[in-house]
Structures are given as structure tokens and as C-alpha cells.
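User: Study the chain.
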Amino acid sequence: MFKVANWMIVSRSQLLIDLLDCRWPQEFLVKLAKAQPGNMAKLLDQQTNSLVLFDLSTIDLQQAYQLQRVIEREHSEIRTVFLNFPKQVDAKFLIHPSTSVGVFYTDTTLADISHGLNEILKGRSAIPQDLHQSMLNIDNEDDTDQLTIREREVLQALLSGSTNLDIANMLFVSESTIKTHLYRAFRKIGVSSRGQAIAWAQTHMHEVRV
């Protein structure tokens, strides 16, 4: 007898949820739970899931990062997949080597997503090669547990009340680059929000001041 797996889709799009609910339960022999970003953590505590899929077309990247951190900390046995992953924005900070097993760009067809999910069910990953290499690089950086000079600069700027756009203008880079530096720094110092990063910097910044 086949065992039914429990997956969860986190999305604000009822249309996408209905579409996937028509296809995936039969195709992959899964029970598909639906969650909004605000109630994902509560639902994960109430039921056992093996896979959580984030719809990035309806979830802010910062919120997706925070939700991914919840899974890393409290449900490390769960694997995560990102649907509608943006190509134009640097969102590699979302991908974590120990939990992330699938990334599908916004132009990926449902057929290609299905193929990738079949690979994941076989114990493989479905992450594009360019992102996979970047993920390895980020993992190597995090292994040192040391903030880079640029990450220190960005944390220092947070203390002065600067916005991401302010910091980007000061450092002559794009706002998305600043977000990437921030979230890499978040991982290294063990926080999941801007407020927590500021509180950490207020206590520790003398240790990391440039």
C-alpha cells in the first residue's frame, strides 16, 4: 500500500492553490495543505509535513526569508521548494543547503515543475545549476561565521536608521544587493528580522566595527 505524503503550499493565490490541488494529490500521491504566510507556523505545529512550497509571486521576499528561518530552526526535517522564483532580483539568500531542495523560476511550466518534484521525491534536488553553485558559495561563506566588510558596513548603517535604499546609494550598489548582504548577515548572526539585527548590532557592533 502506498503511503500518502503531506505537503503544504504557502500562497495568497487561491487560483494557484486550486490548480495545484486538482493536479498534485493524484499525480504525487500527496495530501496538499494550504496556508497563508501568517498561519504557516501554527499549521506546521499541528500537522506533519515533509515538503513546504512557497509561492514567491504572492509572498514578500523578506517574509519568505523569515518563514524559511522558522522551518530551519523548528522543523529541520521539512524540505522547502520555491515557486515563481524571481530572475531579476537577487533572492539567493532564501536558499538554504540543509532544507531547500527545489527552485522553479517564474517562467517554469507546470510540466517542468512536476518533473522536478518527481526528482525531489526520488531524493534528488531540483535547483538550477547557477543557483546551486551560488548556494555552495554562500554555504562556504557562512561556515566561517565571519561577517564580511560589506556586511559590517550594512549593519553599521542600520544603526544610523538608514533604509535599504539609503544604504544602496551610500555604497553605490543596487537595493537588491543590499538586501542580499543583509540576509547573509542575518544568517551569520542568527536573527530573522531587521529589528533583531539592529538590536544585535547595538550590543555587538563594537566587535565588528570597520
Q: What stands out?
A: The chain has two domains: 5-134, 145-208. The chain has a mean pLDDT of 86. The beta strands are 5-10, 30-35, 51-55, 79-85, 100-105. The first helix runs from residue 14 to 28.
